[in-house]
Amino acid sequence: MLDKPKENPSDADYVTHLSGIRSLHHLKKFHTIPGFKIGGAYEIGDKSKYEFGGKGGTSLESLDAGALRTAYIAVGTPERDSEGRITNAIIINSYYAGDAALCYYFWYEGQEGNDFSKGP
């Protein structure tokens, strides 16, 4: 385990691989969320009550684990509307498969995993 999160960690820094498909790891970007709590109580309907975890939960920092870190892969060239919002973004995160690289491999057009998933 790392003492402090590194800007570009490698597999050697962890017990498990950082990406399910190692050749795609270079596509991943990491985002940290300081103060995010695990456990606790959630009041669904008011995002301000659970945006950083449940009330009464424990932060990862308090367990000496560092801030929550999540990974994603962004695809394409952003185009903005008249208000500056990106309108064509594709963000592949770890929500559905636990790893953005695995999601990309199976679901993004042109990847070898498309055969298994019967298309992107």
Structure description:
The protein is of the alpha+beta class and 120 residues long. Helix content is 10%, strand content 18%. The chain has two helices and five strands; from the N terminus they run βββββαα. A three-stranded antiparallel beta sheet has the order 1-4-5, with helices on one face. A two-stranded antiparallel ribbon has the order 2-3. The longest helix is centred in the last third of the chain and has 8 residues. The N terminus is likely disordered.
Key features of this structure:
single chain; 120 residues; alpha+beta; 3-stranded antiparallel β-sheet; two-stranded antiparallel sheet; 2 helices; globular
List the helices and strands and how they pair.
Elements: E1 29-33, E2 37-38, E3 58-59, E4 68-75, E5 90-93, H1 100-107, H2 114-117
Antiparallel strand pairs: 1-4, 2-3, 4-5
Largest sheet: 3 strands, antiparallel
Q: Widest sheet: strand order?
A: 1-4-5
What is the end-to-end distance? 34 Å
- Average pLDDT rating: 82
Structural class assignment: alpha+beta
Tally of alpha and pi helices: 2
From the alpha carbons, calculate the radius of gyration and give it in angstroms.
17 Å
Low-confidence stretches: 1-5
Amount of helix? 10-25%
In N-to-C order, the SSE pattern is: EEEEEHH
Number of strands: 5
Strand content: 15-25%
Dominant shape: globular
